[in-house]
Amino acid sequence: MASHGKQRHMKRIAAPVARGLSPKGSVWVTKGIAGPHRAKKSIPLNVLLRDVLKIAETSKQARSVVKSGEVLVDGRSINDEQFCVGLMDVVSVPKLGAHYRIVVKAGVLKPMPITAEEAKLKYCRVQGKRFVAKGKTQLNLHDGRCVLLEKTDAKPGDTFVISIPKQEIKSHLKRENGCRCLVFRGKHSGFIANLEGIMERAGSKESDARLAGDVITLKNYLFVVDDKFRIE
Predict the structure, then answer these.
(1) Do 110 and 13 lie in a common domain?
(2) Cα dihedral 53, 59, 65, 69 sign
(3) pTM value?
(4) Count of beta carbons in the 10 Å neighbourhood of residue 50
(5) String of b and e for 141-151 (b: at least 16 CB within 10 Å)?
(6) Contacts of 141 (CB under 8 A, 6+ apart)
(7) 18-42 pLDDT, tens per residue?
(8) Domain end: 149, 173, 197, which one?
(9) pLDDT tens string 133-182
(10) Pairwise CA distance, residues 8 & 30, whole Å
């Protein structure tokens, strides 16, 4: 038989671990569509509203809420219930006065309640850097954004705090000794501590990072944050 378009659902038992869904419940859950975050590290709005936040009781109700434009992601209205949100995304439901930042804890994505003022800012990790035409520098951020700057000393691993939805850079957090870091992958995910040092390794093996509290993880598992960032 011919395909009838994209798949809109998947079995609950096959859902990515990062969504933190109980294996018990309805057989089917929303699959999610391609977006700025990897499928295994993101959660569809439909699932977030119904299974995690409990704002909606059914998938139909969650779809209606999203279609009506009542859900904002990073300050802009999203009308596709399959749209996936990931690490550090800001989800707002203005009618309820509710704002959440998607964080990771023990490998599971969790919506952390934040204030309206905190919802105006987003943390974006620099994933890549390259030089483009007219002497400008292009920085690729972890959520799919690209930033063009005239001059910058930012490096992969640093963090920009940007305003949303205007996307203006408010501050630059460097990955250096003494900076405050969130571990967002691995067995220590969700742990926050100051960086004590990076143990560089030759060859293709990734370098290790040592954090306060005798925690050692990979350098690329660190997300630099400021003193205002918190996980409850």
Answers:
(1) yes
(2) positive
(3) 0.91
(4) 25
(5) bbbebebeeee
(6) 124, 125, 126, 127, 147, 160
(7) 998 888 878 888 888 888 999 899 9
(8) 173
(9) 888 999 999 999 999 998 899 999 999 999 999 999 999 999 999 999 99
(10) 6
